[in-house]
Amino acid sequence: MLTKAQWEWIAASRVLSRQRASIAVQEERLDRLLSSADQAMANAFTGGFRVAQTKLAISKVLPAESMASAALESAQIVALAILVREQMSQGEFSAHYRPFATVLPGPGYESPPAIDRQIALFMEFLPTLNGDAKTEVMAVSRALAEPPKPVTMTGAGVQPTVASAAQDFTVPLMYSAAWKAAIELAHTSGRTISFRAAQDLAEQAAPHDGSGIVGTAGVAAGGIFMRDLLPIEQVLLLYEPFAAAFPYESLR
User: What is the pTM (predicted TM-score) of this model?
Assistant: First the structure.
């Protein structure tokens, strides 16, 4: 039932989650919880007819195999987290459910507050960013800004070919397209001055220590500012570098 744009966001969030060490820790904890879960149910979410059906539905809207695989993986993790939800804190569960939290609201979901409040809270957060959280923001920012070069592949009896590495290239292109859309909407809606002001304030509030996340903070603030006109999937992608350190849903 999810749209192409929603599956693209879910896949992108999964691809970028691999840049975060904290995600690996959360998933190790999930694995331990699953060891005492109903194995028949757990198996149903990792193989068999249910998974094949979901994979087919995703592949119809995401033809790139790498993106479709990332989206399926994200859905499986969420399903497994739901299976053992009662053994997790709300914070733990929310971390696993985050890729679906806004496009398919879960229990306890609340509509976001006024845009001005969201931006103000983001500004308060930025100067406190440090340690591992900042390292993860930097890693995700690099992944969005610097797609790896194509890899030349060779083999016995075949001509050299260039691998498309679809998942590596698609997400940065999605990010770039979302930012371009935000700029265009700010212009066509007559909000350019306020849009730039929100961007500038975030850039000033971000750590100026050579970490390279100043521009990323401006993009995230710009996405929040255009929240009412941009598709939510694009807003979430523009905010994604900061999503683990300070989840979008917590900006209230």
Answer: 0.86
